[in-house]
Amino acid sequence: MTKESNLDYQYQVGASLPANSPNYVRRQADIDLYDALRAGEFCYVLNSRQTGKSSLMVQTMKRLQSNRINCVVIYISTLGSRNTKQEQWYAGIIDTLVDKLNLSLPVDVKAWLNEHKHLSPGEKLSEFIAQVLLKQLSQDTVVLLDEIDSVLSLSFPIDEFFAIIQTCYNKRTDNPEYRQLTFALFGVATPQELIQDKTHTLLNIGRSIELHGFKLFEAEHLERGLEVNFIQPHTALRIVLDWTSGQPFLTNKICQLIQQNLPPSIPEGEEEQTISNLIQEKIIDNWEKQDIPEHLQTIRDQIMGRQQGTSLLETYGQILNQGELEVNDSSLEHLELRLS
Fold first, then answer.
1. How far is residue 91's CA from residue 85's CA, in Å, rounded to a whole number?
2. Neighbours of 72 (CB within 10 A)
3. How far apart are CA 189 and CA 151, in angstroms?
4. What distance lies between CA 29 and its chain's CA centroid?
5. DSSP-derived secondary structure letter, 230
6. What Rg, from alpha-carbon coordinates, does the chain have?
7. How confident is the model at residue 1 (pLDDT cuts 50, 70, 90)?
8. Helix (H, G, I), strand (E, B) or coil at 110
């Protein structure tokens, strides 16, 4: 690829990447999630914002579909908010499944719900899965539930929904039909926030997919867009990753800033100082006004909006002073800080 053609190489800052995006960086999470879902495991990807969860979901769905595994995405935030009634919320899930899955027979959702009005909303979903969905599925199916943290804003208890998913897995022992159906959750929440009833063990039977920052060997193709600006684009990318620890949003943002603001052909040996000056000027200085698309302000609001806001800042201060802090997975404070 020539330097002239690299003028067309664009970095995407924020939002989910299309399935065919040249910017997508494959990580260990891509392997782990694909292998687990293909094997029929329940998975969850709970991580902070702008870390590539939805892009991971899109890429995994593409790979699963290419291997004849049916996929349906349900964006939980579209099902309703605090004013949404429980009946409407569960009906929305059923309607989405019918709309997006290639069922062998047509289903009139409104009529079906009316026929089963004697059941509670959660019981209707369970009945629909057992008597309609599993009877008509022609291939293995993965239901991908994105923005799962949206359930935290609902005005009714949501534990029953997670119990339904758990029941689908528990029934596999006696009913092989349930092996056709697999679920995955994506969102910004701690397991403790999602499931209030501690007797429910859904996340204990599931597999947590760890989503780490980009490593240099994984992200080498991103240096294509830096070839105009630097004689040594590989060195430039390494310095960018040193600044961002591979955080996807910030990595793409700094690469974009390089393209937009730096001159061509910066000599070898000047990469670190040049990039440091750019980050200071375009991100750190006057950071609130320059935080476009918004990212750092969201992190601030996430921390201060939590009950343990002050305590989280104190923990973050320890990390700044010490360089690192050993993670305690049983500490709610540590989990919340990582999610912020």
1. 10
2. 17
3. 10
4. 11
5. B
6. 23
7. very low
8. helix
Contacts of residue 263, defined as CB under 8 A and 6 or more positions apart, other chains included, come to 229
Report the CATH number of the 28-208 domain.
3.40.50.300
Q: How far apart are the first and last CA of the chain?
A: 38
Angstrom CA distances, 93 to 72, 152, 172, 307, stand at 11, 17, 22, 31
On whether the CB atoms of residues 69 and 35 are closer than 8 A, the answer is no
**In whole angstroms, what separates CA 315 from the centre of its chain?**
25
Flag the least confident range among 123-137, 282-296, 322-336.
Answer: 322-336
**Sheet (strand 141-146) strand order:** 70-75, 141-146, 181-187, 43-46, 207-208
Would you say 44 and 209 are in contact if contact means Cβ atoms under 8 Å apart?
Answer: yes
Q: Residues of the chain with pLDDT > 70: what percent?
A: 91
CA–CA distance, 124 with 74 (Å, rounded to integer): 18
Whether the per-residue pLDDT at 5 is higher than 50: the answer is no
Q: What pLDDT, on the 0 to 100 scale, is given for residue 9?
A: 86
In the chain, where are the structural domains located? 5-17+213-290, 28-208, 305-339
Q: How far apart are CA 333 and CA 338, in angstroms?
A: 9
Distance CA 37, CA 322 (A): 38
Contacts of 307 (CB under 8 A, 6+ apart): none
CB 90 within 8 A of CB 122: yes
Can you list the positions of beta strands (E) in the chain? 43-46, 70-75, 141-146, 181-187, 207-208
**What value does the mean pLDDT take over residues 205-220?**
93
Q: What is the pLDDT of residue 331?
A: 64
Distance CA(43)–CA(183), nearest Å, equals: 7
Report the distance separating Cα 195 and Cα 46, nearest Å. 13
Q: What is the pTM of this model?
A: 0.87
